[in-house]
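User: Hey, my collaborator sent me this sequence without any context and asked if I could get a structure. I don't really work with proteins. Can you help?
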Amino acid sequence: MSDHFIAPVAAHEPPYYAVVFTSVRTEGGNGYGETAERMEELVKDVPGYLGMDHAGTPGGLSVTVGYFRDEVAIKEWGAQVEHRAAQQRGRAEWYERYTLHVAKVERSHGFERERG
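Assistant: No problem. I've predicted the 3D structure and written it out in structure-token form, which is a compact way to encode the shape of the chain:
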């Protein structure tokens, strides 16, 4: 068994927001991985950022859900200079298509099996 522990973002006290980014990438990396890692580091500096979940399918569909305390935090992340540059590069190079959904979370709970 691996030392790496995988877990979803913990449930938070509602209300808060989920930003759902679903995408299909183009062929080739072209710096995508490095930029994605940089974005994961930068978003942590946004006041009101709560965490991120990410999953991908073998067929190439990728889903990233970012959780934010309020719309102010979402707007701050959207206006971040490096993030804006990454968005432009994404449309020019990395994505065949994507959708972005912003939802207000009104209920939230979690479960974790005891490890033993």
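In plain terms: The two ends are 13 Å apart (CA to CA). You can pass these tokens on to your collaborator as they are.
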